[in-house]
């Protein structure tokens, strides 16, 4: 089944003072999906997102939103997008309502009824007439979502939407993003440096490092492709040497060796270890976390 | 477009900038009124009479005495001689140059405020118009709307022009209303002389003519508004270029103050007349005081200011529409 492409990015590049920050990024965002943008701080996520919403002009490459070219048809293209770039900074000396009204005046055909609608949608209708300076961070975040939804966008772009929220807030935000995609049919692009987050709410994920996309795939497939086994054994060095003779050792730390998961060979490897006098205390097969993938894809670079 | 301008005016009003400015004007006008009142009292005591002719004669004698002092710079002597001739002209034609009354106070207030005080008030509004959005990060939410960037900047500039008009109105109304309590509200029809043209050491009185004070005040208000718009535009440009409102204020203040200082010492540095800050005292041309550099005229100063303003506006739009927002 082919879904409609809402956002198409082709060969996007950005050079700042002779240094190439974004080195040719291409991907597509489909209708009704939550797309994760994962990478460590400094990978170029925010720069890329700013190019998607027209805050930064790309050195080369194109961005098309619902078929409109972002640079040649700016107003038509940007009308399809709602976004929060980093923190949703509002005018603290205005009320939440006035902030929304302020942005509504910049978009055609958005009236008081729509403002109330989005305020209700994000659960802010009780405090909407209070000044933003009295809001908590979580409420500001919700007001940020409200302004992003104001213009009835087809694509929602959220840069680190759970930044600074408490665990309950993070869970709520995750549920809300899934709700927007599933019930309202929005396509959502979410960036994050937190693996767990992307894993839990995204359909597809792009992994980014040093200005490049390393891979783009469904979360499910990425994880399944690379199931692995943790071996807890002592002495660890001997265990690693023996396992390395049989298979690829993906990773080792003080007490664990990580190898690929090959169900029919596992018992044989274990027997070999035991015969050599290695004490095996745990053999656990598991799906990799995105952290595993990330480390493998970037060749050992860790996140943060 | 009107909606965008409404947005910008809303932000200026809600930041309470205009109230602060009104309060500053009110306090200072009250201060100046009191000072002016004390001065007239002092003069009256010294002369034992309130007759302005005696006062004027006294001033002329003062000037003549000072002119006899040998240790005086050539420039200062030149200036005093011009003042002397001007005052003698008033005396001969039986015209009181400083008849007390709220309109007269208003006129002197504008003349004294044109190069520093009024531009300063305009700066209070203009300095953070763009820079505050950049430093607070709200610029990101502003620029991801279906509105072209130049329209957003234009709406801000129009809001600035509206604010300048409001500030001029507040300055005029408040200085008239407050000083009138002490000096009385009459005197709009007082005849004033204008058209003095300083030519070297001579004061060319060829084109001197009489206009009623209200007309004189209107012209001066117009000149002050022109200066305010130009200073506002330059501040606006800096506000686009810099993220820090404090830096914008600092640079503009330094420029204005250096202008006040330079005016007193650039008579032999001729190319300094192309700097905008030595051209701010437009009302001096009305009174016929010698310009800081020989050869400067009202037309010249206004042209210099206009060029600075237009270049500033051009740079502001050029940078704003092309800049990457991080």
From TrEMBL, chain A:
Domain of life: Bacteria
Pfam families named in the record: ABC_tran
Record keywords, A-Z: ATP-binding, Nucleotide-binding, Transport
Entry-linked SMART domains: AAA
GO molecular function, one term: ATP binding
PANTHER family reported for this sequence: ABC TRANSPORTER, ATP-BINDING PROTEIN (PTHR43335:SF4)
Protein family according to the UniProt entry: Belongs to the ABC transporter superfamily.
Protein name as catalogued: ABC transporter ATP-binding protein
UniProt source species: Geobacillus jurassicus
From TrEMBL, chain B:
Source domain of life: Bacteria
Spans through the membrane: 18-37, 157-185, 216-241, 253-276, 296-320
Keyword Metal-binding: no
Alphabetical UniProt keywords: Membrane, Transmembrane, Transmembrane helix
One Pfam family named in its UniProt record: ABC2_membrane_2
Protein's UniProt name: ABC transporter permease
Record organism: Geobacillus jurassicus
